[in-house]
Structures are given as structure tokens and as C-alpha cells.
Amino acid sequence: MSDDGSLALLLVGPAGGIGLYWALYRYYRNTDKSHAFERESKVDAKPVTGTDIKVGTNNGTRESSIKGNNVSDYRERVERIRSDSS
Amino acid sequence: MSDANNPPKFTGPGSPRDVPPQPGDHGIDPYNSAVPAPIREELLKPDPVALETSAKELKDGTNQCPQCGATDIRQKPGTDLLICAFCRHEWQGQRVEEEFGLGEGQDQLEGTIIASGARDIAADEAVLRTFKCNCCGAEVTINTESEMTARCHWCRNVFGVNQQVANGAVPDAVLPFHIKKDDAIARIRQFVDKRRFFALKAFKEEFTPENVIPVYLPYMIVDGKASAVVAGKGEIETRRYTRGEGNSKTTYYDADVYQVDRQVDFTVDDLPLESSSERANLNTNTNTNNIINTIQPFDTKNAVKWNASYLRGCSSEKRDLDVENMKPRLVDQLLSIARARVEGSVNRYGRGVRWEKEGLKVHGSRWVSMFLPVWLYSYWDGNMLHYIAVNGRTGETMGSVPIQQWKLILVSLTAGTFLEGLVIWGMVVSS
After folding, report:
1. pTM of the predicted model as reported, rounded to 2 decimal places
2. Distance (Å, whole) CA B89 – CA B36
3. HSE-up (13 A, CA, CB side) for residue B210
4. Do A64 and B268 touch (CB under 8 A)?
């Protein structure tokens, strides 16, 4: 077995302990809960429009998904387009 | 060109030195025959007004039974009905949805429409309000910070704060409690029973769900019409391959990168926002307000026109935020809703999308101030106030149970050590 593999296995114990602590903490304190207004509000939307233009390639990467994937992190704010009037 | 040392005097209308005209005074007489008809029409058009929701019939504070005239009115438990304690006559409050047309016209919204109960709070408006009892003339003081009804200590006449005073205490509408106290107690007990083992010892010893109290919390219910744009990069996998041998095998990916742009127009109906600055602070490091936030949504469509009699025997919290203070939060939530709406349109990007820019234009919004019903049980652990809250309409329950930290750490350490022991044993056996 390689050194990397052994090290990863040795981390299973501490990771399991921390994971159990965190899971139980959340179950009792519910610090991760809030109103899911994205799903639970009555929203009437027109069909989504837009464009998709190929701009390049990302070959030979070891990452299984795009760096900074935030497609489901609805509440994570990104740079605001300044022309808005909100 | 004018001399720089002797600038011309401001003379005409609109000069910053002029005293502003009276409201409604345009400086032009619309009835003058010299004024062209289109201008006359424009001048005579009524000014835009906010939605007027005040209950004029209750302005003197007295809510009388329509049958016998008694003032001892309260909510019939578990219903939206009001009942007279004297003659047992029952009647239904008017639903604001139909009364003020709040359930329609979201796609026609333009600008900011504010209902009269959601108007800005006057800075000099007192929290303690004195009312003259219209039965005996005595003066009774009500602390509108937490109470909206009082009984005259001389003649026992009951009256409420029904007039929309400018201190933010009286909302446009109220959603009456449906969940009864016994039900709320049972739900809180069930919630805590599932979280007893690691709960703080003192919390378990002092746990008395019978102390739960009914509280009306202030919210703004917002309808909105908006357009959003988002832009970013998306990747589609074109090839997957592995290199290396045995344990050093590594998987590599090739992907095409796309510039992705999306636009969506949408309307939102009855988005609830906390209008108390304390409740709106959802920092879980310092408070447990997220618990109260979680028990939403409420069936706000069934809210009835404000009547202080619904608050008999209940506590209430005063609104302290104005619409302008809350607009950034509305924009934030509308952006989140837009991001959720466009997610389905980027499914083809199997490696995901990284949104990099977003923008929002709010075409119109309508703000209605509302009291929503919450059963609240609280516990102070010496560091933080922990809430267990029950939605007064749906019964949805959520809570924060304080933890006996040493117990949880000990169990986690034991579990971690056991796992580590298993791993080491496995490594020894396999070598």
C-alpha cells in the first residue's frame, strides 16, 4: 500500500469523530435551517431565455466538476451587474 | 454670460430659495381657461396613494359586538372567527386578500406600493400610548411594544389599538392562531423528546413546555415583479480517462467550456420578510432567530383585516423596520429565487456552472405589514437564548436544543477512536 493511501486511511478515525460531532450538533441546534423561500414561495416565471457560446476547453483536469460550481448555491451572491436598478 | 462675482438672482419657480408649494399646489390654476385640456387633465388626476387598510370603524379603539354592542370580544380558538363573550355571537374578519385585492395584479406592479400599515415609522412616535376609554372617560396606557389590547381598570371596558398609529405597532392584517396551546405543547414535547440524550442537563431539568407563549411577530408580506440576468461559465465533459497503475491511478477529464447567459422575468406572491430588526438578524453564532425563520411559510392568503381583538391574551412584537430598510433583503431574496429558476435551464452542463455575474431589476413591489402567529418556548443557557417555535397555523415545529458539550465530545472521540482502531487492525492484518 502506498504512503498516500495509508495516510488517507489513518484519517478515517478523526474524520469520523468530527463528522459525528457535527451531524449531532446540527441535529440538536438546527443551525443550518432556514425558510426555503426559493422553493416555498409562489413564483410565476416566464420561460428562461439565454445564450450558450463555446469559448474554449478545459482538458486534462483532475477536477470532476467545474471550479467554483455554484449552480445550486442560490444564496451565494456573485458580482453584481451594475446596470440594475434594484 | 453672467459675471462670476455677481451671479444672477434666483427668481423663477423652482429656485432653491423659494418656499416649497403646499402639497397639491402646482402653481397653475387648472380651471383657468387658458390652460390646454391635456395639461388640465394631468393636473386634475388624483395623486397616487398607498393602499389604505386602516379600520376606520374601529378608530376609537372600541370593537363592539355587532349584535349586542359588548366590547368583550376575543378570537374563537382554532378558527378565524371573533366571538362575543357576552352574547356568544360569532363573526368572521374580512380577508385582506379580497378586501384590498392583494391576491392579484402582481404582473402589473410598478414602483413601490406601500399599504398604510407598512408606512415609515415616525421617529418621534411614542411606544406608550394613552387612550381615553369611551365608556367612562378614564385614560388607559398601552405599551404597544408588546400589547395591543387593554381592559379599562375602572369600568372593565375592553379596547384595542385599532388605529394605525405611526410607531409601526399596528399592521395592515393579522393571521389568527389556529394551533391551540395543548397542540403546541405536544409538538414541542415531541420535538425535545427526540433530542434528549445530548441535551444540556439543566435544560432537561427545567423543561416545562406549558410555559410556551403565543406571540404575534411582525412581517412584511411582499409581492414583486422583477427581471434577472445571470452570466457565468459552464462545462460539458467530452472525455474521461485514467493514467498510472495500481494505487496511483488517476482519473483525468476533458471538457468544453461555454459562456452561459440567462434571463428570466418573474413575479413573486406573498414573500414574507421579518420586519423586526432583531428577528431579521439570522446570525446563528449569536442567536437562534433562524428557528423562527424556518417554520415559515404561513398561509398568508387567509390573513384578515387588522382587529386588535385577535390579540387578546397574546403577546406581540412591534415592527421597527421601514420598507427602505428592507429593500436590500428583498433584492437578495429575489436574486436567490432567480438563480433557482434558471437552474433547470443549465442541466446540459454535466460538470456544473459557475455563475460569475448577476443583476436584478425590480419593476414593482407591494408591501403589506402583517402579524403572523408563533408559539414560542425559550430557554436561556447563560450564553444564548434558544427557541423552540411552532407555526401557529400549520404546526410546523423547529427548535434549538442546547447541548451538553462534554458528553457530545466524549461520544465523538470514542467513535473516532473505535474507527481508527478498526482501520489500524485492518492494516496490520493486510500487511
Report:
1. 0.80
2. 58
3. 2
4. no
d(CA B149, CA B134) in angstroms, rounded, equals 14
Whether the CB of B346 is below 8 Å from some CB of chain A: the reply is yes
Residues of A in contact with B349 (CB under 8 A): 66, 71
Phi first, then psi: what are they for B189, rounded to 5°? Answer: -65, -45
Residue with cell 427557541: B387
Phi, psi of B341 (to 5 degrees): -70, -35
A18 contacts B412? CB cut-off 8 A: yes
Number of other CB atoms surrounding residue B191 within 10 Å: 19
Is A23 an 8 Å CB contact of chain B? no
CB distance from B393 to chain A under 8 Å? no
> What DSSP character marks residue B172?
S
- What cell was used for A41? 414561495
Residue B385: which H helix or E strand, with range?
A: strand B385-391
Q: What is the pLDDT of residues B225-284, one digit of tens each?
A: 999 999 999 999 999 999 988 777 889 999 999 999 999 999 999 999 999 998 999 888
Pairwise CB contact (< 8 Å): A66 & B351: yes
Task: Tell me if B217 sits within 8 A of B292, measured CB to CB.
Answer: yes
> How many helices (H) and strands (E) are present in chain A, helices listed first?
3, 3
φ, ψ of residue B313 to 5 degrees: the values are 80, 5
